[in-house]
Amino acid sequence: MTPLHFSQPLWRRPPRALFAGEPISSPERVDLTVIGGGLQGLSTAYAAARRGLSVRVIEARELGEGASGLNGGQVIAGLKQDPDWLMQHFGQARGSALVDFAAGAADAVFDLIQTEGLDVEHVRSGWIQAAHTPAALVAAEERNRQWRARGADVMLLNGAEVALLTGASGYLGGWLDRRGGTIDPLAFVFELARLATQSGARIATATRAIGLRREGADWLVDTSAGYPVRSRSVVVATNAYSDRLVAGLARSLLPLHSFQIATAPLPPDLRETILPHGQAVSDSRRIVVYYRKSPDGRLVFGGRGRMAEPKNETDWDHLQRAMLRLFPALEGVTIEHRWFGRVAMTPDQLPHVHEPERGLLAVAGCQGRGVGLMTALGPRLVDYIQGGDPAALPLPLTPIRPIPFHSLRALGVGVAIAWYRMLDGMEG
């Protein structure tokens, strides 16, 4: 999503980025076409190119202009659902594989940064899920029990410990998952693109995939460049930016806007008391707020925004009010950056993997965990493309199920967000 004139993301591409795009200047034939140049698409392209496949990535915008480059940079292990629920829902074999995959999602990001020496600012000091009600604290206790039983480096926090680690007021306790952390998401996008191109993948930006059809054993992707790309396999990695390219995909998702603000660099006294150890935080409210510190000492604060694109700076005011409720000492601190990106929610709050026809894969629905999830998923998609064994995928292949009365459902989500935000405010 191209930032509006008053929308100023904090993140910056790495100064030494060696990514160079290659436009589509003639008809092409490759092993794999990836539609979408976000984290999922680039992770898949990199994994495939490293294994010797010829890869073409088609990105409708410039790199980093979607949610992959505009998110809060929180790297979180696990899924929305706890391990026991996943085991019960998917069965022993599939559930266990999915829990193991989700547990390692943050590792996929930080290990890649370390082993490849990526120019990505990062801190791995954990992720805190802060509880603001007794019911949320009970849920945190249960989550802690389940992950500790599986050997995860996690711990339960009381109210005083959450206050000490976050500097925020009003929490009863919470849960610390030391597997998590933070990164600069835009830098990570560009470094993934660099790895992919250095491995042989070709990336065309500002190029739309405008048609997708089967021709014999191949797929033909028509592009806005005027030339088609033919391949045996296609991965549609468009997530919240999905359109009519794959029938029903966009209508199976509920798009939401994630809004974020960043303060001016905090003065030394506040920098020492607000997130002094650099953890990322999400809370337990119905409309979750999340926050972290940037490498230059700003507080970055995010949450759900209006369903339509923002029209002026006041559309971020609800975030500033929420920030001051948690951090009253920030009264008077300047907000220097405001930005937003589009994310996709699935009705069951699980990521979905689809194969509507053989050789055509689509994945959507990150539920706030896209940085780790989509980075880790790329190599597994390539495993399936090369071997054809569904067990290579951490999630089962499911049919695309458009949401009935999709446009009305999206409108209802907007009304629910406003209602839940009011309830959250009443709870403090």
UniProtKB/TrEMBL annotation:
InterPro entries: FAD-dep_OxRdtase, FAD/NAD-bd_sf. GO terms for molecular function: oxidoreductase activity. Keywords: Oxidoreductase. Residues 31-381 form the FAD dependent oxidoreductase domain. GO terms for cellular component: cytoplasm. It comes from the Bacteria. This is FAD dependent oxidoreductase domain-containing protein. The lineage of its organism: Bacteria, Pseudomonadati, Pseudomonadota, Alphaproteobacteria, Hyphomicrobiales.
